[in-house]
Amino acid sequence: MILIGRSNWVPPRQWKLWSLPRPALSYVLGVDAVALAITALAVASTTFGDRPGIRPTEWVAFAVLAVASVLHLESARGIERRREMAANTSPYTNLKSLWVFAGLLLLPLSLVVALVAISYGYSWIRVYGRTIAHRKIFSAATFILASAAAAAVLRAGGLLTEPRVPTGPWSLMIVVAAAATWWLVNFALVIGAILLSSPDATARGALGDLADQVVVIAGLGLGVAVGALQASYPWVVPILMVTVLCLHRDLLLPQFQRAAGTDSKTGLATSSYWANAVPAELARAEALRSTVGLLMLDLDKFKEINDTYGHPAGDRALKAVGETVRAEVRQGDLVARVGGDELAVLLPGASEREVLEVAERIRDKLSALTVTVDTQTTNTAVITGVPASFGAAVYPDVAGTMDQLVLAADNALLTAKRAGRNTIVSARPNPPLDRAETPIEN
């Protein structure tokens, strides 16, 4: 079988790595250097340490995990590529941790590093594309550092020799502590890179949706199960592999759906995805006798940014606006780009007061937003303040259907723009008709 990469070879000197801000570049190269040093120490320990050499059973376990990792990546590569593209400026979660943590329990650290290299090398060629090699190198480095930290926890807890699978309450606690350490180190390293690479990113935005981290937690838990089965009942591992592939699709289906409906410029939901989400949320609210808030916002005089600095600068400002709006809404709210410079926020369960509070926070943040952009004439420019007008409406207070809700919010938005822009207007409920005024149909 010939593996064909998703793009042509890009020389290292042309990697986008070198365009990172200097603090981010130093950070990424520093993490890579530490991972390289850990690799050298791990190889030296295996070769010249207390127990030189690798046992045949460890080679067998390594081969099983390497093959399983590659088959896993190949079977889910379409989902994984779209999910990473949708991750934008938040951590991208995956199930590679499953095979790596299983290896950590079964193999010396040198073979764990080799397993990481195989997994990310295959991903680079087959799944994600060769143009982002520096990102895969950094991700592999975070895996190596996380594995080294977890291995130190295992050794500190008395699990000195492989296999280090839990056999009782104490060893289970040690393995759980090692898994928590692995997750924390990897997550912290990735967050650091995001914050340093994106000067306009907020800490909350960089953390992403913490609920997505259940994927990593599930992977670590499955890694413990794979390690235990490989150590005692290796012939059961293929059955667990099939289970993992099914769980992969079920666990990541919501993220896959979000990826398919993600606007490429802002990372927000697309208008088509949003249009499908609104009626579903209204039906849910009707069943629960709850409310749904809708906030429409239009950027004031955004055309001036495009005309003054160019469309690439406008795209950068629009992306910063999207990140700002997403950082100010609640978990579970849906932010979408529904037009050129028009955004919509769906707020399930929100009252009018809560919708207006969210709108006020967003308005204040956008008014003070500072965005550094590349321009057509000079190297960079700073845009200070990207004000917006807001229209708010709440179901079922002012509308009983999706069309009515959107129309009410749009009319309120139009009123806000006519009132001088950078203003919030809430749609008012229609007054009930008197019985005598109720129209009679023939």
TrEMBL record:
A GO molecular-function descriptor: diguanylate cyclase activity
TM ranges: 24-47, 99-125, 137-158, 170-198, 210-229
Coiled coil ranges: none
UniProt domain GGDEF: residue ranges: 290-429
Keywords associated with the record: Membrane, Transmembrane, Transmembrane helix
Short name of any one Pfam family annotated for the protein: GGDEF
InterPro entries: Diguanylate_Cyclase, GGDEF_dom, Nucleotide_cyclase, Rev_trsase/Diguanyl_cyclase
UniProt keyword annotation of Transcription present: no
Keyword Membrane: yes
NCBIfam families registered for this protein in UniProt: GGDEF (TIGR00254)
Protein name: Diguanylate cyclase (GGDEF)-like protein
Source organism (scientific name): Kribbella caucasensis
